[in-house]
Every structure is written in structure tokens, then in C-alpha cells.
């Protein structure tokens, strides 16, 4: 539905969650692309230790994702899960500077476990919970999810360049910026009123008689060969991405005379890649 056709409350929710996506992925971009650089250059971790950290994050992502999925379904349009993620993001800078970094240098296992729990909640599993919630809000408020989601891509792209420049000055600057923007997330979440419209409530009620999820249904999936083939495919793709995420940033900056310049250019490349990818999606959508 066009923006002009939305009711005032629906327009407000459109703007609030568009900005929520922008700032959430801005914060994530302050961490994710540059995380291997931060581990190596700031905390002086070896490649093996970096692998331990990434493995811990993946482990807790596997644990939290199904839990968050069930919680999201139970909570519906209630904001409890998003408030939890937002409060933890406000602590982003204090956590990285005063908790995570010292722990990594004292004990790699303890640091990896604590970091895995935190990052697993706010990003690895949290991003899925955020997207599922806003997608549900978009259906309840009659606006297109894709239009607000693209703001997250812009936030990610913008932050990548900013972080690349600031990292050579002081990596902690971007952490504090991220914590500041998390306060904005809290304000947006407080202002939003994502209650369902009457028509959305009717549609939801019509779907209330659908067969509920059960362990028996899940067990039936395990007997499907195509399901196992799909699992192998996903695991293979995820493994390739994990190797890329762990190594590419440090590999890329090794081609430059100074690490600072390499990190700066890496930020610009990340921005360009993200914008090019989204432009391609827009063009493909336009041909449909």
C-alpha cells in the first residue's frame, strides 16, 4: 500500500521502524565487518584464537535462534524481545571496551563464551528476531516490509565507511557512537504503537485455526531426503561465509602499506559492495 493511503498511526510506525532498521544495522556494521581486524590488531589474537571466538558466536547463535523464534511467535506485537536487544545494545561500548576485550586477553575461552552469548543475543539471533518482528508489524500496519528493510542496508553501508576511517584513529569511537544510536533505538521503540488494525486482526483470527507446530511435524521432516540435502547445502554455504568473515578483512588490508589505510579502504569497499548489491535487488524487482 502507498504511504499516502496509510492511516496516521500506520505512517508513524512506518517511519519509526524504517529508522529502527537504519540504526540497528548501523550498529551491527560497527561490529561485524571489522570484528576480525579488532580481534587481531587491538586484542592481538592469533588466527586460531579468532576461530575460537567465531565458533563460540556460532554456537550460541544455534542455541538462541530457535528460542527467539518461539518467543517471537508467542509475543506477537509485544516489544519485550526488542527491548531486551535494545538495552543490551546500549551497553555495546562498555561491553566491548571494559568486558570483552580484557577477557579475551586474560582467558580466550572465557572471553569467547561471554562474547558469544552477548553477540549471539544482539546480532546473530537478534537480527532475525528484529526482522521477524518488523515484518509482523508491516502486515499489521499495511506497509511494505521491503521499503523499511532497505533502510538497514543504507545504515550498514554508511557505517562501514565511517568505521573504516575512525578505526585508524581509535576503534572505541565507533563503539560509543553505536551505544549512542542504541539510545535512539530505545526512543523509536517507545514511540511506536504497532497495534494491529481491525482488518489485520480479522485476518489473524482467520488463521488461528491453522494446525499448530508439533514435534511430530518436525520428525516427519527428518524422513525427507530433500530436507537433508537442503541442510547439507545450507551448512556448506554457511561454512564458506564463516571462513570469509574470519579472514577476508585482515587479508584485504595486508595489501596496503599501512594497516590503517587498508582498514579505511576496506570500509569503502564494504560500503560500495552493500550499495551495489541492494541496487541489483531493486533493479531485479523492477523487472517483475
SSE blueprint and pairings:
Elements: H1 8-31, H2 35-42, H3 47-75, H4 80-90, H5 92-106, H6 108-124, H7 126-140, H8 145-167, H9 171-191, H10 198-206, H11 215-221, H12 225-253, H13 259-286
The H/E string reads: HHHHHHHHHHHHH
Largest sheet report: none
CATH topology: Growth Hormone, Chain: A
Mean pLDDT: 87
**Cα distance spanning the termini:** 17 Å
CATH homology superfamily: MFS general substrate transporter like domains
Structural domain tally? 1
What structural class do helix, strand and pairing data support? mainly alpha
Q: Which CATH architecture?
A: Up-down Bundle
The low-confidence runs, each spanning 5 or more residues with pLDDT under 50, are none
Quaternary assembly: single chain
CATH class: Mainly Alpha
Query: Helix proportion of residues, in percent?
Result: over 70%
Shape: globular
Strand content: under 5%
Q: How many beta-strand elements?
A: 0
GO molecular function, one term: lactose:proton symporter activity
Membrane topology: Multi-pass membrane protein
Keywords: Cell inner membrane, Cell membrane, Membrane, Sugar transport, Transmembrane, Transmembrane helix, Transport
Pfam family, one: LacY_symp
Describe this protein's structure.
With 288 residues, this protein is an all-alpha fold. Helix 1 (8-31) runs antiparallel to helix 7 (126-140). It has one domain (3-195, 216-286): Up-down Bundle (Growth Hormone, Chain: A), CATH 1.20.1250.20. The radius of gyration is 20 Å and the shape is globular. The chain has helices at 8-31, 35-42, 47-75, 80-90, 92-106, 108-124, 126-140, 145-167, 171-191, 198-206, 215-221, 225-253, 259-286. It holds the Pfam family LacY_symp.
